[in-house]
C-alpha cells in the first residue's frame, strides 16, 4: 500500500493520537455495530441529513480540497474541480433526489403456486462497511462510495490512502466536523492500520487500488465470508481506425491520458493499437496536439500532475529504461526526479513482450502497437487480462459492433475516452482481474444493500394439496401448480 508509515493515526472520534492496532479496530467495529443496531442509520431522515452534510462540506471547503490535491499530486485546479469536486456534487445530488425512490420496496408479481399472495423486494443496509480508497483521485474515490453506503443506511469506516496525506488529513477533519461520528468514522494510517482493520469482520469491504493489494483484501474478507467490491485497473487499450477525425480523436486520447492526473488513473488509455500505415499520422497528430496543450517544455507546465512519489517515479523510469523500449521513444521522455515530473511520452512499435506491455503503466507513458489490419487489434486485446476500460475510434458501423461484441472489459467507449465514468446510469466496475462489482449512482446504493425477498400471505386459500397423505391426484396437481399453467391445473383436477 505504501512504504511510508505515519507516526500515529487519527480517528474522527478523538483528538488524542495513539497506535491503531487490532484491539482498537475491534473496539471501533463493536461501537459501530451497537450504533447500527439502534436503527438510527436506517431512517430516511438520517440518511438525508448525512448526504446534505457531505454536499455542504464540499461547497464550504472547495479551496482546501484543491490545495490538498495540489499538495499531494501537483494536480491542476481544473482537474480537481471538474473530476473530483463536480462529480462528488453530482453524486450527492443524484442520491438526494433518488433516495426515497431507491428505498421504496419494489413490488413484484407472484405465481399461481402461492395464490393468493403478494411480494416485494426490500433494500436493506448490510450493516457496518469498510471503504479503502486510492491516492490518485483521493477525494472522489473516498467519498463517492461513502455516499452510496450512507444512502443505503450503513455505518461506515473510511480508510483514505496514506500516499495522499494532505487529502487524508483533510477528509478526517471534514468528516469529523460535518457527519455523525457515532456511525461514520475515518481511520488514517498505512499498512499497520489497514491490516488491523482487515482483521475485523465487516458486512462489506469496498477497495479501490491495485490487484496485489486486492488479493490481500479478498483473502482477509474470505475468512469472514465478507462480500467485496474491488475497483482495480488493467491495461486499457485504444483502437484507432483510419477513417476518423484524427484531430478530435487525438485530443480526446490526450484528455483521457495526460489530462487525467498525468496518466495516473485506472481508466487512462494504457496503450494504442493502430495499423502500420496509419501510425505515422497518429504520431504526428499526438506531437502537434501535445505541444499545443503543454508547450515545448512540458516539465514546466502547470497543467500536468506530478508523479505521486519517488517509488512510482522509479517504477516508470524502469519501464522506459528497458532495453526493448528505450529506442522506441518518438516523443517526450524527459524526466526531472527532483520535481517528480515525467513529460508526456509516446513510444512506437513497442514489443508485446516488453516490461511496459506486461503491467499497468499508471503514468504518462503511451506505447503504440501496430497491426496489419485493424481487426487484428481485437485478438491483441483479448490475449491479455480483461481491462477496466477499452476505447475505439472508428466510423465503421461493423467495427463498432464487432468491438462491443468481442471485447470484454469493465466499460467500453466508442469515439472518446474515460467519459463513461461521468454517466451515473451506467455501472462502473471491472471484470476478471480488473475488478469485482460495480458502483456509481443507484449501483452504489445497490452495492451496499441486500435485496431482501418478502412474500405476504393470508390465512385463506390453504390448499390441502401441500399436506400428507400424498396421493397421485395431489402429485398431478402440485406438478401443475409449480408449472404455472391454468390448463394443466384443470386437467389435474379432473384427472385427465
TrEMBL record:
Keyword Translocase attached: no
Active site residues per record: 231, 266
The UniProt record lists the keyword NAD: yes
Residues annotated as domain Aldehyde dehydrogenase: 35-454
Residues passing through the membrane, by range: none
Molecular functions (GO terms): aldehyde dehydrogenase (NAD+) activity
GO biological process, one term: aldehyde metabolic process
Keywords from the UniProt entry: NAD, Oxidoreductase
PROSITE patterns xrefs: ALDEHYDE_DEHYDR_GLU
Catalytic activity field: an aldehyde + NAD(+) + H2O = a carboxylate + NADH + 2 H(+)
Gene Ontology cellular component annotations, sorted alphabetically: cytoplasm
Family indicated by similarity: Belongs to the aldehyde dehydrogenase family.
PANTHER family linked to this entry: ALDEHYDE DEHYDROGENASE, ALDEHYDE DEHYDROGENASE TYPE III, ISOFORM Q
Record protein name field: Aldehyde dehydrogenase
Organism lineage string: Eukaryota, Viridiplantae, Streptophyta, Embryophyta, Tracheophyta
